[in-house]
Amino acid sequence: MRKIIIAIDGFSSCGKSTMAKDLAKEIGYIYVDTGAMYRAVTLYALRNGLFDSDGTIRARELEKQMPRINISFKFNQQTGRPDTYLNNEPVEQEIRSLKVSNHVSPIAALPFVRKALVARQQQMGREKGIVMDGRDIGTTVFPDAELKVFVTASAEVRARRRFDELNAKGMPADFDDILKNVEERDYIDSHREISPLRKAGDAIELDNSHMTIAEQKAWLMEQYQEKMRE
Q1: Most exposed residue of 6, 47, 98, 230, measured as fewest CB within 10 angstroms of its CB?
Q2: What is the 3-state secondary structure (H, E, C) of the chain?
Q3: Tens digits of per-residue pLDDT, 22-32?
Q4: How confident is the model at residue 160 (pLDDT cuts 50, 70, 90)?
């Protein structure tokens, strides 16, 4: 059976990673969470003092250190999903913290960060048979992807999902802080100069504000099966 590239883009906390992971597992494809890659770079910058007290990034220093940042994914037998590793250290939980969320969009807007990570992502998808989610997969990373999906939901719904997710993991969370973070990230992601978040012209849009995870999963599988019948 032929293999294709599946690009899933959308706003933060809209459930695209859950959909993408589940589909990849179901059809035996490799799953790559590009958002986790930008979060890993952000965590590295936070740990290494590359943010000034006012939140400004020490971009020149970060650019010099980019070759030292190794991001990889390893399958977690317990969860059945891949975990993110930063320089061979598991950081899956740490990169999901609100602190990282509050700093990731400015990091992701840096041209040299995007260039480095996009090159790595394109390398990963060279053999096809991949499901990749992010902000610019269908527009920049794989503009020729056979199946493109753009996922959206209201900011309030997305903030509630993020709040519930953090609570379930036993991580401290404040709904108003999360909603503010979601709205700020939407603005930065949509207005950045390099690869802004936008729907590709040939992407199928899904507003999942009022859908269950099971309904989203079924919808995405239907899109995949329809594409494979073409």
Answers
A1: 230
A2: CCCCEEEEEECCCCCHHHHHHHHHHHHCCEEEEHHHHHHHHHHHHHHCCCECCCCCECHHHHHHHHHHCCEEEEEECCCCEEEEEECCEECCCHHHCHHHHHHHHHHHCCHHHHHHHHHHHHHHCCCCCEEEEECCHHHHHCCCCCEEEEEECCHHHHHHHHHHHHHHCCCCCCHHHHHHHHHHHHHHHHHCCCCCCCCCCCCEEEECCCCCHHHHHHHHHHHHHHHHHC
A3: 999 999 998 99
A4: very high
Q: Which residue(s) pair with 176 in the sheet?
A: none
Q: Rounded to whole angstroms, how far apart are CA atoms 81 and 74? A: 8
Provide the pLDDT for residue 122: 95
Q: What is the pLDDT of residues 74-83, one digit of tens each?
A: 888 887 778 9
